[in-house]
Amino acid sequence: MASAMIIQLVPVGVLINTVSDHLIKTALAAHDILNEKSFKVLAKYLLSIRTLLHRLDAREIDGNSSVVRGLQSLRDEVLKSENLVNKYKERSRISNLLNCRKTSEEIQQAIRDIGNTLSLFDLYTVEINEDVKNQLMLLESQMVHEVIRASDDMVEVSEMLTVESKRGRANRARALELLEMIACSHNIAQSPSYITRELQKFETDIEEAERRKERQEVQYMQQVMALLSQADAEMALETSRKQYLELRQDVSGSRENFAVHEPYSEFKCRLTGKVMDDPVLISNGHTYEREAILHEFAKGGLKDPITGESLRDDVLTQNHALYCTIKLWRQRNYMARILKARIELEKRNEAERVRALTDLMELCKESANDKDWIVFESLVPLILETSKSRNNELKALCFSVLTLIVKDSIHGKEKLVEAGGLKQIIRYMDRGPDVTTAAITLLSELVKTKNILEQLGQECGAILMLVTVSVRGNHPELATDIESMLDQLSYDGDSYHEENIKAMVKANWCKPFADCLHKGSQGSKLAMVKWLACFELDDNRREALVKQNVIDALVDMLKSKQFRLESPALEALRKFSFHEKSKKCIAKAGGVPLLLELLKKPQLEMKKNAAAILADLTMKHGASFLLYEDEIPIEPQKIVEVVMGNLIASLHTAENAVKVLLHLTEISDANEVIELIKGNDHGIQTFLGYIKIGTPPLRDHTIELVFNLCQKDVTVISFVMNDHDCLKALLQVIKDSLVEGSVQAFAAGILSSIPSSDDNLNRLMTTENVLPALVKMVSGKNLEGQANALGTLVRFTDSSDVQSQRSLIELDLVLSLKQVLKSGTVPAKIWACRILENISRSTTKLNREPHKWGFKLSRKTSLNCKLHKGKCSLKDCIVEAGVVPDIVEILKNQNPEVILAGLKALETLLLEENMLEDGIQILDKCKAIDQLFKLVHLDSHTCSEKCVDLLEVILRFPHMKGAYGHLVQRSLAAVSACRVPSLQQKAR
Fold this sequence. Notes:
The chain has 988 residues and is mainly alpha-helical.
């Protein structure tokens, strides 16, 4: 009710006038959009409606609510149309051309919406002129059913622009054809000024689209802009070419030797004395340079600065005739200088070439708009040829001139590249500071053109040379330009250039690769990671990639939970996992929990790679890098549980799983891990099973792991002792000459941990004939293998089992021990002394007893053994083998256990009363007695006590007291001061 009252209050005449104003305004705006058929149709309808509205008698329809409502709706729709028209009127004709179909659809809808408002007038209930009524009804029907289509010409041009813009750069003829078609579609004469204005407006349209964040539209418009800019440049180039040909013909026919004409006096400003650039007339008819006369006027006073004549005003009028004359004079001189430069460049005289290049440089600075004439004259290939000179100054000058010629000139750049410019620049890029600077500056200008940038990436050695110049750091002022070029070569704003990025990584420039992994599309990331997984990295490239946070990107791919990214990322991560700095990065990025999760997945290859990375992470560092992302250590129970699960799951992952456990048990504090392994349902038995399978390298790593476990927990030994097949497998490893020495050492180490009282192992070793292999290990270069082999062999040297001893000495073990005493490890020396002690105790028995097969041993015997009186051989007597001096030498060792073992071995020379004096003489000759006096002062009471015992025996003989009496008192004092009761008693 209220709304009806409001409608009645609005005078119909006012509404008709308001709507009429909007109709005429919108129609005129639509009519101004040139050659847009759809807008002209809209304008025709709007003007028709306006004419009919003016024929209505406001008094007849005043107060009619349906008419008022219809007029208001009409006004609203016309306002919408007005906004639509203004939107397209403000846009460039190029934008309207590109959107011609969409524009037609919008205009069609606007016409139909306006037509629908006419039906609201309810003309059947209104008493108005019958002719007006019929015309309104007819107009309504026509508008509601109006169909608007873009012209065929505009559609054709629009489609061609779309096709050509997607292709990229069009050829010259095609570009000019496009401009002609655009001009024809708008019924406008083709001209450079027209296309330049439209391109400027089109640039504004692009900026508007960017503000509206219409990304796809912006990308399309930018492609069209590039295409039309090329066409515009081609048109300007064609105009310049025609002018060049005319001037060249003129200068060639009228000037001898291409002489440069001096300027006429009229060309010079009387204020500056220079040829004028912008000559202007003042009110008295005199001509001056615009800037100079303005400067004079600014000083005050309105008069001619030369004549002093008063001026009626300060109006300046361009002297167009003089301006054109000066311009023509300049252009002719410009052409003459170009032609003269050509002649000088073709000569072999270096001075003339320098003069020509210097003049060309000046020409480019004086008239940048006409420098295409230098290109038309084919001077670019000549300058490029001149750059091959051995003179670096001339080479640098050539590159500097070429930079000025091609600056902002696509045509010049193309000609330079066609002449082999890229290869030449790359070749001489590192030929001295001046040449390098000029070459990089020229290259920076060239790569501003997209297709040349692409060609540069394809040039062999280009990227390597750019990186080399940058990394050397000899040209810090060029660093920004080089990095910019490398960035452009790797990413063009839309996509990453994978081949260029690979070449950069090979050249040790890794930033673009990292950017691609962090910001690239999924396809680019996948391609790069797959390549990295296959690429052989050296330490320098690896470190460079780590610095660029490549590991973070790889871990992020693991976090994606996408198999197509996870699998190659794992393979690539293996390239880094053994590198210490990389280990820290993997842990910090949260990679370790992800690796543990991947070990639970069914994909075999992923499990294998994840286990391999964990094996690398734990190598030499144990669990130091097994951390959560917040750097909190991962629970050992979780680690062991997952890793042990992979031991049982598959042989393919078992090898690396064993290596992880091996590395975890190598650290000093491995008790918790060992207990977790032992507590696992399949722990130790699984390891023994892999030893029995006998497949390297799984078997080899498992042997090392079991060796570690035996060293740190003696209870593990019982598992080995009770597995007969495992013992046989270990013996087979020791016997197999193809097995690596370190693996044999670990196998021997396991056996050495088994008590000597274990008869099962002793029988098995004899049955398997493993003693020769163990003796060979003693003679080998593997020091740990020496010690472990000796620890295993010692069980066969017990003095109560002469037969076992004899089987060893026949293998020349004693002579092998001589070398061990000189260069073996501490454990090896201890084992060697114990074996020598046992053999020395049995020497006389070994000489008397026959061989087990019933005949005497075939050996070289000595009739001059000072201790055993001529019954010894080199194999069974430490005296005849010459080992005693070596035992004495190890008494100088700092390790008390070594010393004690050596003392016990020497003690065997003093065991029997009938050999006592000979034994003492042997010790004296080897200077062992002096060493015994020194060892009395040792902190090791056991060693001191053993020394005192030996000295007590030695000093029974008077001649020994006489020889060493001066040392006795001092040694007794030292022993008396000792708090050990047994030593004090001996001292008394």
